[in-house]
Write a structure and sequence with these properties.
The chain is an alpha+beta fold. Helix content is about 40%, strand content about 15%. It is built from 13 helices and eight strands. Helix 2 crosses helix 3 and helix 9 crosses helix 11. It is elongated, with a radius of gyration of 25 Å. About 0% of the residues have low confidence.
Length: about 350
C-alpha cells in the first residue's frame, strides 16, 4: 500500500472515530504541552481531570512558572512519576525566561522533560510543523501493519520506526499532518489495541502483515531490560499534642520532593518505656501508646515493589528525630504533596 493511501485510510477512520479531547480544540502550545506531559505513562481518563485543574489554576505558562514546586507537586499528587511535575515546572520557567513558547522542533526539545515524541506532538499540534509522532500506539500500529520484529525499545528499532513514520507522514504537514498524527495514535488506542484488537472490522485488515501471518499477538517486540527489586519501608506516624513529624524526601530516590511521616527500612524499637527510631540514637522515655496499623502493604512502582509496614505512635513528648524532620499541625498535612503510599497510611489511621 502506498503511503498516501495508508494515511488517507487512517484520516477517514479518524473522522468517524477520533476522540474529542479539550486540548485538541486549541493551538495554544502551553495547553498542548501540558496535556502531553500529563499523559506520559498515564491514561487519558485519569489524566484529563489533572489537565483541567492545571489549566484552571494556572491558565498561562507564566502562572505555572510563578508557582512554587510544592504547589505543583501537590496538584500533581496521585499521577505518579513525579519527575514529570518537577520537569514541567522547570520548563515553564525556561519558557518565561525565553519570553515566548519555543516554536521550532529543536527549541522545543530543549525544554526540560521534552523528548522526541513530545517535541513532535507540540510542534505538529500547536505550530503545524511537519513532524511525525512515534508513541506506544504508533509503534504498535506500524509494527503490526508492516510486520516489523525489531524491538521497539532498541536503538535500531527507534531509528527504524522513526524513519518509517516520517516516510508515511503527509508531505503537506499543517492541519493535515496534525490530524494524521492524532489519527494514528487514536487508531492504536481504539482499533489496534494491545489486547484483543478489532482486526475483523479494521480498515487495514486486507494488507496487514501481522494479521496475514498470525503474529498480531506477538507484535510489537519489546526487550525486557528492567529488573524489578523488592524493598521494605517502615512508616511510623508520630502524633504529639496535635502535631505530627514529617520530612521531605531528597534527591536520588523515589518520590523526590514529596513529604512523608517518619520512615526507615528497619522497624522501630518499642518496649514498655522506650521508642527508639532508626537511624538516630535518640529515644523517647515517657509514656506513649504505639500500635501496628498494617503490615506488608504492597505498592508497585515501575522498577520497585514496596512492602510497607505502618505504625502509629502517640505521645506527649517529641522524640529525637533526624534534623530534616519538621513538626506541623496534623490538620495541615493535606496541604503537603505526598506519595500515594502515604495516602494509604492516612486512610488506615484510627
Amino acid at each position: 500500500m502506498k503511503p498516501e493511501t495508508f494515511s488517507h485510510i487512517l484520516l477517514e477512520w479518524f473522522r468517524e472515530n477520533g476522540r474529542q479531547l479539550p486540548w485538541r480544540e486549541t493551538t495554544d502550545p502551553y495547553a498542548i504541552w501540558l496535556s502531553e506531559i500529563i499523559l506520559q505513562q498515564t491514561r487519558i481518563e485519569q489524566g484529563r481531570p489533572y489537565w483541567e485543574r492545571f489549566m484552571s489554576r494556572w491558565p498561562r505558562v507564566e502562572d505555572l512558572a510563578a508557582a512554587t514546586e510544592d504547589e505543583v507537586l501537590r496538584e500533581w499528587q496521585g499521577l505518579g512519576y513525579y519527575s514529570r511535575a518537577r520537569n514541567l515546572h522547570h520548563a515553564a520557567r525556561q519558557v518565561v525566561a525565553l519570553g515566548r513558547f519555543p516554536d521550532t522542533l529543536e527549541e522545543i526539545k530543549r525544554l526540560k522533560g521534552v523528548g522526541d515524541y513530545t517535541a513532535a506532538a507540540i510542534a505538529s499540534f500547536a505550530f503545524g510543523i511537519p513532524a511525525a509522532v512515534v508513541d506506544g500506539n504508533v509503534y504498535r500500529v506500524l509494527s503490526r501493519y508492516y510486520g516489523i520484529e525489531t524491538p521497539i525499545n532498541s536503538t535500531e528499532g527507534k531509528k527504524e520506526f522513526a524513519a518509517l513514520a516520517d516516510s508515511i507522514f503527509p508531505k503537506e504537514g499543517g492541519t493535515t499532518g496534525a490530524s494524521f498524527n492524532q489519527a494514528i495514535m487514536d487508531f492504536g488506542a481504539i482499533q489496534c489495541t494491545p489486547q484483543s484488537p478489532h482486526c475483523l472490522i479494521c480498515p487495514l485488515m486486507e494488507s496487514c502483515e501481522a494479521l496475514r501471518t498470525g503474529r498480531v499477538g506477538q507484535l510489537p517486540v519489546k526487550l525486557k531490560t528492567v529488573k524489578i527489586r523488592e524493598r521494605r519501608l517502615v512508616y511510623t506516624y508520630i502524633r504529639c499534642k496535635g502535631c505530627i513529624a514529617i520530612h521531605r524526601r531528597g534527591a536520588g530516590d523515589i518520590w523526590q520532593g514529596l513529604w512523608e511521616p517518619f520512615v526507615s527500612e528497619k522497624a522501630p524499637f518499642f518496649d514498655s518505656s522506650h521508642f527508639t527510631p532508626f537511624p538516630t540514637e535518640g529515644h523517647l522515655s515517657v509514656a506513649f501508646h504505639s500500635s501496628l496499623i498494617r503490615q506488608n502493604v504492597r505498592h508497585v512502582l515501575t522498577h520497585q515493589v514496596i512492602l510497607a509496614d505502618f505504625y502509629l505512635l502517640e505521645t506527649e513528648e517529641r522524640p529525637v528525630l533526624p534534623e530534616d524532620y519538621i513538626w506541623i499541625q496534623e490538620s495541615d498535612f493535606d496541604d503537603y504533596a505526598k506519595p500515594r503510599l502515604v495516602e494509604i497510611l492516612l486512610e488506615l489511621l484510627p
